[in-house]
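Protocol step 4 of 5: obtain the predicted structure for the target chain.
Materials: sequence only (see below). No template structures provided, no constraints applied. The aim of this step is simply to have a reference model before the mutagenesis design in step 5. Sequence pasted as it appears in the construct record:
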Amino acid sequence: MIKKSFEEVINDYLKKINPKILSLNKIKNIEIKKIGSGESNLNYLVIINKKKFNFRINMDSRSPFKSKEEFNALKTVERLKIAPKAYLYESNKKYFGETFLIIEYLEGKTLHNKKISKYLIKKLAKVVGNLHKKNIKKIKNNLKDSNIETLKEIKNRIPYIKIHRKKYNLSKDFDRLLLKKYNSLYSSELTKLKSQVLGHGDICPQNVIINKGKLKIIDWEDLGLIDPALEILRLYDDF
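Step 4 output (structure tokens):
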């Protein structure tokens, strides 16, 4: 049996789905082009009847719910018009061994390696401000808490540090101190902040696209509750 290429699998898949899912009347004239890999995604530009989509395959087996989380995140912020439109989430892994999304393909370039002016920073601030202002009362219980997630990440790193301590010339006191600080943070008010807003969680130049003066943000799998001051601090750091 000849194994099909990813492009062939994508083509076959698209011919079988209901075109209305993609806001199309019919599906014909399919063009497919690989456009690169992120840290954990494989992306293909798909053009159907001259309409462009991003066919986004999760390549991180350690994060089996990543595609679903990104799809739900994109639906959450859809009305803000600051992110690509999400059309489809496929949970069946029989096609590529992992889940995938079909989302809007955004024209333009990222702010990576681009000189960032005060004008762009102001535009980005408005985009982030609109995200932070979104009413989260109805969806709060379905959102990840970034503070809790950060603490989990610290906790997960402690065993790694113990194993690799010699490599980094660290004493036993270091991981003891880290564990002590982790326990201190976990029992503090950090986990009970009331000033939380809806936050992207990873706004960096690589995740902001500009086209004809308009900014949009990509890579939404880390959407969750966040202290607005923390997201602003990250913006200062990354930009």
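Step 4 remarks: The mean pLDDT is 87. Residues 146-164 form the longest helix (19 residues).
Proceed to step 5.
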